[in-house]
Write a structure and sequence with these properties.
The structure is a homohexamer of 250-residue chains.
Chain A lengths: L2 H5 L10 E5 L5 H14 L5 E5 L11 H6 L1 H13 L4 E4 L7 H7 L4 E3 H10 L5 E5 L5 H10 L6 E6 L6 H4 L1 H19 L3 E4 L8 H8 L3 E3 H14 L19
Parallel strand pairs in A: 1-2, 1-3, 3-4, 5-6, 5-7, 7-8
């Protein structure tokens, strides 16, 4: 099956939802990694396409990178709309642009940060989050607060690694990550760990085994939540702040 | 297939999870209604058993009824554990006893209140909840606060109907419910509605059509969230407040 | 005076309130210790009966134990109602079942956690709580949040001792407790300490002397608060969430 | 017994605590009313003196009046210290100066606002407060927030009466108060009412009967809480923010 | 003086700061209006340039419009940096992109929402905000929460007018605005009003006179706050979440 | 120009606002230091008078000192009103009496704590505060909470120096301060520092250079904020809790 066919299979071929997973940065090796884990965790019947915009920063490390990834991300959502996707995952832990995406999508849009917070809050009294660079900490702290999860979140920590080190300097990255997770367990008395970057999805199983407590990955969490929302027949409310944008010429 | 066989199918017969849905009150007609909607919303491959304890109040209307339902509920969780269930739904909107259930269950345990709050928060900026009797309002307000969802929740409202009126006085119950939902939309400016009782699950589709905004039902939400947690390989953390109870003689 | 007579003295014999203190676990040596300190702190004129259910866990260490103690606890409240008690203390720091108790009691019901939080907030800008096992920490953190006391509470800590070690391994228990209190003072910069277990009531005076700051015990606090509520003529509101349970057959 | 003798009875004459109730405004008829209700609610054995400074505003209506009452209030606390009082009530619903009082007093100091909030939170899921003039609403809202009681407080309301109307225009004052309380019950769905002014203490019983729900008066609440704190052997912590002021010449 | 000269005056010509005010939408008549009020309120010595991007939505009504305005906005910030501007105002009440702007600007960047919230909180106990369309309400509510101002904000309201109606349907717009402000005063008991759109800046004086309470405009507030920050020698911290973006090729 | 002339310059002589800065303690050397920094930071055209009451504690260290400074402070505000000052700064980091001041002043009144919190929140994601003595920590924590700034404030710390050590034991004071600031940066991961005492204003520049992150001084912040409020035409709202005190004889 070629890529085009895969994207738009006749409805009869699937009995489940069509979900588009968008890595908003432009690093295709990360997209491939995400795709691999999404594919191995999707429900039978679910059709998933994982892709990334090309006109986007290679990694999203801070507010500016996040802002610069928006045009590409929104374009992909529009493409997904045209191709009848039933739901969307935004696979950046900053939940970049999800509010804007919800205005233009018909089906649900879920960010990997929010998904992992919700999931973790139902299996543990509290958790700590471990992200890549220190500069991402305040962004994630703001999200934790936005979603009302301060009481669950012991601490947002950084393993002090660049996002792309997860792709091209794996040993150091994984090492730092494990050290920071162990500090979180000891110092924060947390019952679970959330991985604060889409690029860590492949490490979930190993880290959980090493840590001895549940390690929650946002990519898989968001995929499963989108499946759950679609399965429950739920779509984004269109009567208020997520109503379709007023058409404008510019 | 007799009930016993259904409960404990050989693992080879299913490719999906085994989920136990427990209605903690003892009204079997409500359990049947829940079972019907759970069955029609479960993923292909999921095996679900829906049941209720017999030694429990016929409806849970207040803190006392909730407390009195706990021994029966916990017994059913233990039974589910022995029969290899992978996850559990507690189908009462008071999320009765879910913390205690989590201590004795291996797989995830999800309450229908928390599930619907999480789901609604990802498809709307805010919501109002409509429950049965006024006496349940403070219980639900406490849950909203416990889960950090105050900022999403416009108001907890009551349709002023007894829980069992949903079974045996349907016209009045449905009428009151619709009136209260319309008041919520107009007065609270909410973008979604959450149904605050397991017994309302069959009305979700109709109410959503009448209301013109998403109406979230906790029963289906919790089923889908448990499927999602199991699909993501997540179980309750056993290192802290949910660790297995210390065995005691009494 | 035999026990039966003591329970139901003619009203003329007392000029003060009749208060029932219930230790919801079934360890009578702990009940005796509680009784001793309640008796030495009650106001002249107050009549107090201290007892425990027999069909209850020997100690309450976690959500499950708490749930399993409820039938016995609620039975004792009913017994107190029949015997004209004017107010009730639930002497477990998890404030187990107090909402349910309030529905079936006429007079006020006070938990030892809430009582000590309120008391401490009026004599110090902040406090730390020291409980027994780590598994109780999240339960107490939830209570602190439920009562709106996050801003007063520096930290909930555990001395890492089983509840019954307070009865049968006293030297170790007291030692650990004092060490943890000293850590709290140094690390949390707290102005007061709250003892997070009913079984610590006899240590209050000693610990306060050792610590050099106020140490608040929940048992005595709750007794005095119940006396205060009765003295002010206040009873639980019966118009809302604490109204008398709707009678049900099961 | 003359006033001087009454103030400083030999310890042997009382078996209970000596409590000083200070009305920080200078209206002696209000002080007399407070004294009457304090006397009729004190525990047997408690000795109470109720008084007011003379160099103080006749009523405290706003931040400025509150500030101007402080020197007189603090002087009375010092006088109480010299005369061996064991505890203090500040009988203004703005809890004027209680933090400063705590620095110079040995025994506990309780404000009537905080006392009533704590009491009400243990007999109802929520309450509304009814005060005198609208200008006092933000002050009380700030106190509710300071004490962590936002989640219990439905609304702070004003009956639109001057403080002294409670003394010299009683019919209008009581009428307005009852009307506002009835609005609170209907509109706020509150389970209890708190009276937001010391001058309303004599109306508590009547208003409670008319309202059909518990009406909490701060004056009596604070008296009982001070008795409770003293009875529990608790004094203000002196290691942190309430430590004795550093002596200064000026 | 031609425009180019005006933009980059030799430092010797001004004794005050150079401030760039950016209207992130592309409607130049709105920019002109903003410029007029900025010019009439700037301190003597302050040099201000007011402009807008051309590749931006003509009005920002919702999350999507906000996202689409970011590339143009960030480009203008970069232009300002190159031309030695000392500080920046983002003149959209959604505070669009201010976090991203702060990463690339040397001097302070202030949004008109945050500026007006801070200003209003120092002249009133509370305020209500009146914006244009209902779809902007949740965005502003999120900002109020992000800035910690929930306790000051009574309600976010909409006058139900499109942003550009402020330019081309003035009578209706002004009328609706005044009606909504009067409702806010009566129903919310607020002490001040904040105008929730940059396009309302010219109405501030008139509305304040009509309303009889302070009406706070974000545009002038932000200008004055930027002057204040520059005057105090304060620049955005560059050690954490606002540090300069890591250079990336794409 | 003699002092009298300076206080009440003919309006024609200034094109900017007249601002009164009040140091509420009675230490004139501290007032002189404040005056010096206020003068060097005021806008051209602004006229500033800096003074202190004589009947006030020499330093404000705790609630009691704060209360005792109020009569002198309020007297100075009244004097400022009579002499046509357009705005007021209260130069004590406890924001002593600012609510009362707002009732009697026509122009805006700004405390140095609130001013620095607002300023810092616009240039950093978070900050820590370093004050003088530990006893001031709870007062400042309460202010942080009152202003809704908990989410920005990492920690309130004390350099363990008396206020007047900043005047007469400078080397030790400055040393301790720098050590505490460095601890804050390392342990709290804060992006900015706020100096928690008016007497530290002269150290701002030096500390900022040593710390390598923005150091915010309340005195200059408050001056600039008052200039900003006046420049925006904003005065304290007089319709609610800050309305002019009701005249009273006593």
């Amino acid at each position: 099956m070629n890529k085009q066919a895969k994207i738009n299979p006749p409805k009869s071929e699937t009995d489940g939802p069509k979900i588009l997973v968008i890595n908003p940065n432009s690093t295709s090796t990360m997209t491939d990694k995400i795709a691999k884990f999404v594919d191995s965790h999707k429900a039978s019947g679910t059709f998933v396409e994982t892709l990334n915009p090309s006109n986007s920063p290679p990694s999203i490390e801070g507010h500016y990178d996040g802002a610069m990834s928006l045009p590409g991300l929104l374009e992909k959502i529009k493409w997904g709309e045209k191709n009848d996707f039933d739901g969307f995952v935004v696979a950046c832990f900053d939940d970049t642009g999800i509010d804007a995406c919800r205005e233009i999508a018909t089906g649900p849009v879920v960010g990997i940060c929010e998904a992992s917070l919700h999931m973790a809050s139902m299996i543990a009294h509290n958790f700590s989050i471990v992200t890549t660079l220190p500069r991402s900490i305040p962004i994630i702290e703001d999200l934790v607060s936005k979603y009302g999860m301060e009481k669950y979140c012991r601490k947002v920590r950084s393993a002090n690694i660049e996002v792309l080190a997860l792709e091209n300097d794996e040993t150091r990255a994984q090492n730092n990550l494990l050290i920071e997770i162990k500090s979180a367990i000891e110092e924060d008395r947390c019952e679970a760990i959330i991985l604060g970057c889409a690029g860590m999805t492949d490490l979930t199983h190993w880290l959980s085994k090493e840590a001895g407590i549940p390690v929650v990955d946002g990519v898989v969490s968001a995929l499963k939540i989108v499946e759950a929302l679609i399965g429950a027949g739920l779509k984004t409310s269109k009567v208020g702040g997520y109503s379709t944008p007023i058409p404008k010429d510019y």
